[in-house]
Design a protein that fits this description.
By secondary structure, this protein is α/β, with parallel strands linked by helices. It is built from eight helices and seven strands; from the N terminus they run ββααβαββααβαααβ. 39% of the residues lie in helices and 17% in strands.
Length: 229
């Protein structure tokens, strides 16, 4: 059994500066103020419209990332409906194959990492699930049948595309103190990355600053097909 930490893969060009220029150009159609647009745009224009609640203007652009998380968190992510998703399928992925190392991969719950007893119980449960899963495959059951015993901690890869307004909605919900801790673990560092690269669109979104930074998921910068740079 492979134990991994969660990660978020972000294409290098996902949040390019030209996004803001295009959004401003589209938005100015509403006011017929195209003639007032500077060559490099006005950083205050979009911010002022978002402050007024005019968020539909940023739906014209999107960003795609890949979350490497556990199945429990992926179930929450797909609740966001204005989206496109492509997810690793337990119906078709047969983890007894060589390309998977003949074992399952699970995401370590960070909140057990400093509690040896809890961590032991979690690890033993995952190992038992792996053993039962492999036994079902050995007995001739299909992958889609054997997956019935796989745990919520099972690692999954899910490609997520939201428009810029939906990302705002995602961050407002998933970076809040009320969100699941493993959701905050990936959502908060991703928000910080968005804030760094598109501050005009995301700097006004608050997040749970009490969440321990040492547990933030790694943000991995990739090429446009998720090969790490």
């Amino acid at each position: 059994m492979i134990i991994q930490k969660p990660r978020v893969l972000v294409p290098e060009q996902a949040l390019g500066e030209d996004i803001l220029l295009r959004l401003e150009r589209y938005a100015r159609v509403c006011y017929k103020s195209e003639d007032k647009m500077a060559d490099r745009g006005n950083p205050d224009f979009l911010k002022s419209k978002l402050k007024l609640g005019h968020e539909s203007i940023i739906e014209h652009e999107k960003a795609t990332v890949m979350f490497i998380i556990d199945r429990g968190i992926s179930h929450e992510i797909v609740r966001h409906r204005i989206a496109a998703y492509s997810q690793e399928s337990t119906r078709y992925c047969r983890y007894s194959q060589d390309k998977f190392g003949n074992e399952i991969a699970v995401i370590e719950p960070y909140f057990f990492s400093e509690d040896d007893v809890a961590y032991h119980h979690w690890e033993e449960a995952c190992l038992a699930a792996e053993k039962s899963y492999m036994a079902l495959l050995e007995a001739g059951r299909s992958a889609q049948e054997a997956r019935s015993v796989l745990p919520n901690s099972l690692k999954t890869e899910i490609v997520v595309t939201y428009n810029m307004r939906e990302w705002r909605h995602f961050f407002r919900l998933r970076c809040d103190a009320a969100a699941h801790p493993q959701m905050r673990q990936v959502a908060i560092p991703l928000l910080l990355y968005f804030q760094k690269h598109l501050p005009d669109l995301y700097n006004d979104i608050e997040y749970d600053q009490s969440f321990p930074e040492k547990y933030y998921a790694e943000i991995v910068i990739t090429d446009n097909i998720f090969n790490p740079l």
